[in-house]
Amino acid sequence: MQRFVIALLGASAALAAPTASIKRATVSGAAEGFASGVTGGGAATAVTPTSTDELVSYLGDSEPRVIILNQEFDFTDSEGTTTAAGCSPWGTGSQCQTAINKDDWCTNYEPDAPKVSSITYNKAGVDGIVVASDKTIIGEGSKGVIKGKGLRMANGVKNIIIQNIHVTSINPEYVWGGDGITIDGADLIWIDHVKTSLIGRQHIVLGTESSGKVTISNSEIDGTTSWSAQCNAYHYWSVLFLGSDDQVTFKGNYIHNTSGRGPKVGGKTVLHAVNNYWGNIDPTGHAFEIDSGAYILAEGNTFDGVKTPVSTLEGKLYTGTDCSSALGRACVENNLTGSGDFTGTATDVLSSFSSKAAAADKDASGVPKSAGIGKI
Fold this sequence. Notes:
Blueprint: H1 2-21, E1 46-47, H2 52-60, E2 65-69, E3 72-74, E4 81-87, E5 98-100, H3 105-109, E6 115-122, E7 129-130, E8 135-139, E9 145-147, E10 151-154, E11 158-163, E12 166-170, E13 174-175, E14 181-184, E15 187-192, E16 195-199, E17 204-206, E18 212-217, E19 220-222, E20 239-241, E21 246-251, E22 254-256, E23 264-265, E24 269-274, E25 277-279, E26 288-290, E27 295-299, E28 302-304, E29 310-313, E30 316-318, H4 324-327, E31 335-337, H5 367-370
Parallel strand pairs: 1-2, 2-8, 3-9, 5-13, 7-10, 8-11, 9-12, 10-14, 11-15, 12-16, 14-17, 15-18, 16-19, 17-20, 18-21, 19-22, 20-23, 21-24, 22-25, 23-26, 24-27, 25-28, 26-29, 27-30, 28-31
Antiparallel strand pairs: 4-5, 4-6
Enzyme class: lyase
Family: Belongs to the polysaccharide lyase 1 family.
Organism: Karstenula rhodostoma CBS 690.94
């Protein structure tokens, strides 16, 4: 009898122990800069989807949601494949991306490129999962992976947090095969500790509609690929900010193995680029492209062996340290190690940041180890 009681007590303790140790993923930290104050799903009871259909339903419904991702959600084959014509504007080698003739892109913009009669790709990647307002999407550890399909926030949605997930494998062979994260006509969006990899087109894109206030922080843009527009394993289509009235804080991000658009900034975008780290950038490529209409304050960034930190400078860029009148502090110098020139003297951009400037550190060398999924 005594042995039976001891065994029973031991079994009860074993059953109780896991319950006591369970810790659900919760939002870590708070958004800095332009998206400060974002709450996402707030105090809503957390839900944990177990299928791709359930994930889509939670992301797109009208309820405030805290959505926990604790597994990989593979959309690759969820909508079947389609076959279409295309072209090869950048070459026909095995490492070259091919372009799908989406909206007659090949016909209108690359009429002289070699034609490709048949491209078969996964339909799921072309359009991202619709994310509605008041959502928090957060991964547990390194388990929150969305494969084969991106996320899309558009048509006036707002107040969304995306943290600690990995978006990957969206038709990487094909330009126009799909984007990783799209914001186009949204507001108050925080993307944090997110990794993107193996994307056909843009890893992160803010489209031409106003995207309001956005913070992208502590994230990893991994351009490592077997297919690229430069045919050299460096992804070109990295980050694109083209909104008509966007305010973007881009802080603590790690951009690597890319050849361009890291980021490309235009439209009417106000961008605070602070404490980011660019490394292993294609020696024949570049980091920034700054088109007309862009207002950029860049401080505390590290360019490690980047031959061309900026290729085009048609917008306004300030990289100096005389910021006290606008920010109440000095701006932090950028660190250019074995890199080309990165200089901008447009002090008039400073007034755009006076109320929403994120803090800046002098040293961004730790960013490669702290950015991306599983780092919080």
